[in-house]
Amino acid sequence: MIRLQFSLELAYSVHTPSADFFFNFHPAHTPQQTVMSENLTVNQTAAIWSVEQDASGQRNMRLQAQTGPLKLNYQATVEISHYSDDPMQIAEVPLYQLPLDALRYIYPSRYCQSDRLAGFAYDLFGHLPPGYARAQAVCDWVQQHVKFRSNSSCGTTSAIDTMVDCVGVCRDFAHLMIALCRAINLPARFVTGTDYGADPALGPPDFHAYVEVYLGGRWYMFDPSGTAIPMGMMRLATGRDAADAAFATIFGGVTSEAPRIEMVAEHNGAQWQLPVHTDQGLSTSVV
Amino acid sequence: MIRLQFSLELAYSVHTPSADFFFNFHPAHTPQQTVMSENLTVNQTAAIWSVEQDASGQRNMRLQAQTGPLKLNYQATVEISHYSDDPMQIAEVPLYQLPLDALRYIYPSRYCQSDRLAGFAYDLFGHLPPGYARAQAVCDWVQQHVKFRSNSSCGTTSAIDTMVDCVGVCRDFAHLMIALCRAINLPARFVTGTDYGADPALGPPDFHAYVEVYLGGRWYMFDPSGTAIPMGMMRLATGRDAADAAFATIFGGVTSEAPRIEMVAEHNGAQWQLPVHTDQGLSTSVV
Amino acid sequence: MIRLQFSLELAYSVHTPSADFFFNFHPAHTPQQTVMSENLTVNQTAAIWSVEQDASGQRNMRLQAQTGPLKLNYQATVEISHYSDDPMQIAEVPLYQLPLDALRYIYPSRYCQSDRLAGFAYDLFGHLPPGYARAQAVCDWVQQHVKFRSNSSCGTTSAIDTMVDCVGVCRDFAHLMIALCRAINLPARFVTGTDYGADPALGPPDFHAYVEVYLGGRWYMFDPSGTAIPMGMMRLATGRDAADAAFATIFGGVTSEAPRIEMVAEHNGAQWQLPVHTDQGLSTSVV
Amino acid sequence: MIRLQFSLELAYSVHTPSADFFFNFHPAHTPQQTVMSENLTVNQTAAIWSVEQDASGQRNMRLQAQTGPLKLNYQATVEISHYSDDPMQIAEVPLYQLPLDALRYIYPSRYCQSDRLAGFAYDLFGHLPPGYARAQAVCDWVQQHVKFRSNSSCGTTSAIDTMVDCVGVCRDFAHLMIALCRAINLPARFVTGTDYGADPALGPPDFHAYVEVYLGGRWYMFDPSGTAIPMGMMRLATGRDAADAAFATIFGGVTSEAPRIEMVAEHNGAQWQLPVHTDQGLSTSVV
User: Fold this and answer.
1) Which residues in chain B have Cβ-Cβ distances shorter than 8 Å to D167?
2) Residue A68, strand partner residues
3) A7 burial class (0-12, 13-18, 19+ CB within 10 angstroms)?
4) Is D22 an interface residue toward C (CB < 8 Å)?
5) Where do the Transglutaminase-like domain residues begin and end (chains A, B, C, D) (predicted)?
């Protein structure tokens, strides 16, 4: 079991009379991921907010703030007990048997134009036997094809752009892997989470973007950017792509400071282990 | 009340050992739209299929067919009793108060890159007072800006393409209107339906693509292509755009014939009226 | 030496009071390609036209026609005596030494966005030793990556589209090869010519699009679509891409019929040979 | 007559054994623009370079530098005696009569996809009487449609991007105006020059991008960004767009500092005047 101490500070300046924020920074509730305790403070006493959990366990927060500085402090203790399985035993689910909720993740989306990449994807992966290993092959190809470079992409960069430009950040790796998976009829979705264990050369702990692929009746995690330790990634939100799984979407005249994130894995040798790399398939949910 | 007799013939040839079809040709069940009776026949006795209704009342059919001809015949009698209201009385819903289900329709999607069109949309519509009339202004602008031309677009044509190229079919008009609405924070979604009352010059009754905008706590219908009589449009499926609301999505080696559609409005002068153009806002559902 | 009998019929209907045509169907004059005789007839006696040869030997025709049918008949006898060399002996020209006229063919153009493809091209070809063989490697890769399919592209299809979609016609193969060559600093240009020896399955002789790369102080021919016999290709026009090397650019309300082309290689066993495939590098000009 | 003192410092660090630079910072030689004197110093004594003037009077410099710092200092005294005319008297040149050199500027190019914008351009400008005023209408529309914002675009931003995004820098304004002009068959080209008289809020004198349109047998200047005084703009290079008219194109591992430019207009009340805004059409060349 992984036990994470998550701490987050967000700071904004609101320049308009009010501004609306839609946040996804609360860890999701899933059978494998439990929020043991949490605490949120907001500096604006007049701000109104609410947190609403949806069917996937995602916790959507909305907040309306007034002119002036807005600061949020959030701490949570989260325990993750991954479902893990031997990759050789994890099969693809035939299209006909996909649940409706998974089925909608085979369609193209804003940043994952899988319709355009069908030819490319079939050339690369069409001949591989179906199963977890095929999703892993897509993940490996993306990691090899794309170079990680900070600030190399922007908010409108799509999977096709990343395929062509061969450069990006974690969100771009995720979009390209998702698009290629969907192109070969593998349901794949975007996850906004945190990146425990990322290469210190990339800076302190941060939000992270990775991928879940629907295999064997579950969503399995993949980290195509290869920058984090999957066992230590904590799920905040899922969606078709970054368009509907951002950690913050803001409406109004607002300037932002960089979020400050701390992430500590507690370990005591017995009950709680440090996240490590593994060859097992890891999943945190069936929906 | 509108009473429609809907008849549909679909004909395919399956060239691979099997093929999977995901259909959305069943009329949706909503408080305003009732399927009084329906009948489906499939020529392949070995085909397996199921129909599953989701929370929005959409009825998703999946079917697995074998090599050879596949023919579906479907008839339904549908009654539509629109909710209608005075456009002057229909307000926009503040972002903070949008239900989660509506909120996801303000994000960009595959064919509706509202993130790119924000500047354009604010220049054109940002100064207008919020409300139904503003959505109508977007609808009118799209109808004026884009020329209807058969076969002028293809499966990858997006709202930006249509904005630039100024030409398209009903699906393209819908995508552009949706993208512009979302760009000014109006939730908007794609509807696949039927086009009772379309200009005979455009051919016999057909599937149709139009738009619903979330206003005053309901989804109101708009027909930016201007080719049909909204009161006679029957909802089959809704989605973010054509990527997830197509009437048929097919996996496998399949060739298709053009679908044959018949649509008759029964009328008896009292209980059942013929669809006519109206200045009222029309809605068929709150979800 | 190759001796070609070229015959062309073009038929249009002009619907506006007048229409302007810019043609490039006259074979270019180069030290290696000689027009022995030619004859042009135009059915409209009131049409005005002129043919102007530019520095590259390209013969640009402009014609102004009136309402009604327009028919052009053109015949030419052309002799081509290729410059040929051993690929192992053909070196790349260092950037600093490129003549200005060749230099402008390393920049991106409408359909050949080499700026975007630099990362991709360096991954694929950056490690190869410079020289003719590297251009050939680009040609081979394009031929392998892209599937030839009639009507799979349109007038706005670019090299990036073809890279992504993996399908196209000869013009698309040419654009992708050009973009990849420029991305590794090889001057490359688009040629509109004819396709003697094309696979009969693709239909009768036709206009053809292929590529010339500047190597060893000359322009060498490459046929990335692999559909013709390079020795039998006849050059009409060159340009950065199809935007400025089309065989016909038309302004006005005009409908076109498919051009009718005949191409016969005379051969007598001694002086004139039939075009055949060769491993030699073939060039028809230094400018 | 305008008399400009132009001073330029360029500073680079070359990290590879050598690097190739193609510069266009020498003022062009045209009948209206005369370089009275100039002086260039290069810090690397081993660097080799040459300057070659082409038919348009553009002076293309190539330079090969070695590892280490590279510094160029250039000063020139330039006199510009514009050809000017009453806009009402400046007609469009019929397509059939365009010289070949002008004709090539009606075709789409890398950043100016006029082929895509034909519908849009005809809707906006098709009904206007031909002539200088129509080009001015395009210029005015672009200035009104696009917001100037520093760093809002990047090297791959095209006219279609700017049309959609409604934001850009001088180069983007120029690309959009060029694309719209070509779309209505007006030859238009990109000019890299200097921006004497720019709004001090935009910083010190800098390189500038503007447009020339072929009208009445000459190239007339337009400044769609509206940030400079056209009478004070000095031409360095022309091309189809920024792809082939950049002031510097660099091959090799090189980091750059911002160029330092000084631009002083000498004036003595009689022979030499200060540049001022004018309603006249201004031209610096016929080719």
Assistant:
1) 119
2) A14
3) middle
4) yes
5) 162-226
Entry pTM = 0.95
Q: In sequence order, what are the beta bridge partners of A60?
A: A52
Phi, psi values for residue D48, rounded to 5°: -115, 145
Chain-centre distance for alpha carbon B192 = 3
CATH 2.60.40.2250 positions along chain A are 2-80+249-266
CA geometry: angle at D233 spanning D231 and D239, to 5°? 125
At residue C197 the predicted structure's pLDDT band, cuts being 50, 70 and 90, is: confident
Looking at chain D, the domain(s) classified CATH 3.10.620.30 span 84-245+277-285
Contacts of A147 in chain C (CB under 8 A): 119
Query: C115, D54: Cβ pair inside 8 Å?
Result: no
Collect all residues of chain C within an 8 Å Cβ-Cβ radius of residue D249: 107
| Under 8 Å between Cβ of A248 and A255 | no
- Tell me the CATH number for domain B83-245+278-285: 3.10.620.30
* A contacts of B108 (beta carbons < 8 Å): 110, 243
Nearest to C136 by CA among C205, C268, C233, C230: C230
Q: Does C48 touch chain D (CB under 8 A)?
A: yes
10 Å CB burial of residue B134 (0-12, 13-18, 19+) is buried
Which residues in chain C are classed under CATH 3.10.620.30?
A: 83-245+280-285
Chain B hits for D125, CB-CB cut-off 8 Å, are: none
C160 touches chain A (CB under 8 A): yes
Tokens standing for residue D175: 């690309």
CB spacing of A164 vs C116 below 8 angstroms: yes
Smallest CA–CA distance from A63 into chain B, residue? B96
Confidence of residue D268 (pLDDT cuts 50, 70, 90): confident
Q: Report domain D84-245+277-285's class.
A: alpha beta
Query: pLDDT tens, position by position, for chain A (287 residues)?
Result: 999 999 999 999 999 999 999 999 999 999 999 999 999 999 999 999 999 999 899 999 999 999 999 999 999 999 999 999 999 999 999 999 999 999 999 999 999 999 999 999 999 999 999 999 999 999 999 999 999 999 999 999 999 999 999 999 999 999 999 999 999 999 999 999 998 877 777 778 889 999 999 999 999 999 999 999 999 999 999 999 999 999 999 999 999 999 999 999 998 878 999 999 999 999 989 99
Query: Which residues, other chains included, contact B27 with Cβ-Cβ below 8 Å and sequence gap of 6+?
Result: B6, B33, B35, B38, B59, B76, B78, B234, B235, B236
Q: Domain C83-245+280-285 is in which class?
A: alpha beta
Chains that touch D (3 or more CB pairs under 8 A): B, C
- Higher pLDDT among residues C204 and D231, named by residue: D231
CATH class of A2-80+249-266: mainly beta
The confidence score (pLDDT) of residue B269 equals 76
CA closest to D161 among chain B residues: B116
D145 contacts B123? CB cut-off 8 A: yes
CA distance D40 to chain B (A): 44
Taking the C-alpha atoms of residue B126 and residue D250, their distance in angstroms, rounded to an integer, is 43
**Distance (Å, whole) CA C233 – CA C225:** 13
**Which chain D residue has its CA at the smallest distance from C239's CA?**
D104
For residue A111, the chain B residue with the least C-alpha distance is B110
> D54 CB near a chain C CB, below 8 Å?
yes
CATH 3.10.620.30-classified regions of chain B: 83-245+278-285
With CA atoms as reference, the chain D residue closest to C240 would be D109
Among A119, A145, A166, select the one facing C165 at the smallest CB separation.
A119
